[in-house]
Amino acid sequence: MTNLSFLTSLALRECDLLGEFPLRIFNLPNLKFLSVKFNQYLTGHFPEFNRSSPLISLRVGFTSFLGTIPSSIQNLNSLQKLDVAQCNFSNSLVPSALGNLRQLTYLDISASSFGGPVPDSLANLTQLTVFRIATSSSTGPIPSWIGNFSKLEYLCFAFNGLNGSIPASFSNLINLQILCLQSNHLTGVVEFQMFQKAQNLYKLELGSNNLEFVIEQFSNVMDVTVQQFTILDLNTCNLKEFPDFQRNQTKLERLEMSGNKIHGEVPNWMWNISKETLIFVDISDNFLLGELPVVIPWVNLLCLKLSNNSFRGLLPILPPSMREYRASNNKFTGEISPLFCNMNSLMYLDLSKNNLSGTLPQCLGNFSEALMLPQYLDSTIQQQKQFDDD
């Protein structure tokens, strides 16, 4: 190998590397930044790290690195960024030695074999701005000490087996921008006011738990500035109405509110929010009723899910950008409008279990071959995840 002793930075991200990563590179005396992220077929393992290593950033996420994360990793005194997401390390628990890397600002150990409770040894990592343990096998409660991470901007514990409530100490995370806790076993009451100090919070994902999202105490406080969200996931949050703070949202891209307990009609103001930015809306599996606008005004919409409600009247006409339209198990009536022909990028259409009549517009036969159209019988139609910084 060519003499690389003066190398300080090596970035080989997304280079389709194959084979085993040379151990010698880890021992280069001046190497501070190493990234081989997103090389799926690159194998390798960590050496025993000595105290002389100057590494500041070590990123091997989304590779096939294996073996274990050695306890000697705590010798990397200067390490600020560690990314080992979606590797094949055999550690069954998060190594407690990571808690000694007190200069860390970025830690991603997602989609790995790590399981069990989030170790208290990580409570020392108070400089973290990014902390991700998603899509793993983490269990137990969310530690309250995370509320001490005052610099945290991105926290993701999604798709685990965490239980208990969201700690009240989360109200201290005033620099938070992204919070992803969806798809766990979390319970308890969550007041929207918990997040009010985090004025830069733009992505909030709490869905697919058993939380009770409470908004009443906020709705009467008119002098509070509400964050502008781009993503709101409030699926199965025991909501009984559309949150009032949504009324002034102008930047929403994705809105998920399925599986709640919302009754009555969709408020008129709902159709005026984020007209230019919304691309995904899911309000299925509620108790909604009434007629919808003849034309949905979200001009760049890609996906709309209305299924399992009691909407009636004519099917709404959607913009040409649509890819997925689900409106099954409602009470829609009338014919399918020829204006459906404008949705020539449609890939999934489900209008089953309604009271529709007439015949299918012939243009549907000209749609993409990828269109999945449930069978049409008895005049009724029956029955497609960010914040990385190298």
TrEMBL record:
<dbReference type="InterPro" id="IPR046956">
    <property type="entry name" value="RLP23-like"/>
</dbReference>
<dbReference type="GO" id="GO:0016020">
    <property type="term" value="C:membrane"/>
</dbReference>
<keyword id="KW-0677">Repeat</keyword>
<dbReference type="InterPro" id="IPR032675">
    <property type="entry name" value="LRR_dom_sf"/>
</dbReference>
<keyword id="KW-0675">Receptor</keyword>
<dbReference type="Pfam" id="PF23598">
    <property type="entry name" value="LRR_14"/>
</dbReference>
<keyword id="KW-0325">Glycoprotein</keyword>
<keyword id="KW-0812">Transmembrane</keyword>
<keyword id="KW-0732">Signal</keyword>
<keyword id="KW-0433">Leucine-rich repeat</keyword>
<feature type="domain" description="Disease resistance R13L4/SHOC-2-like LRR">
    <location>
        <begin position="67"/>
        <end position="210"/>
    </location>
</feature>
<keyword id="KW-0472">Membrane</keyword>
<protein>
    <submittedName>
        <fullName>Probable leucine-rich repeat receptor-like protein kinase At1g35710</fullName>
    </submittedName>
</protein>
<dbReference type="InterPro" id="IPR001611">
    <property type="entry name" value="Leu-rich_rpt"/>
</dbReference>
<dbReference type="Pfam" id="PF00560">
    <property type="entry name" value="LRR_1"/>
</dbReference>
<dbReference type="InterPro" id="IPR055414">
    <property type="entry name" value="LRR_R13L4/SHOC2-like"/>
</dbReference>
<keyword id="KW-1133">Transmembrane helix</keyword>
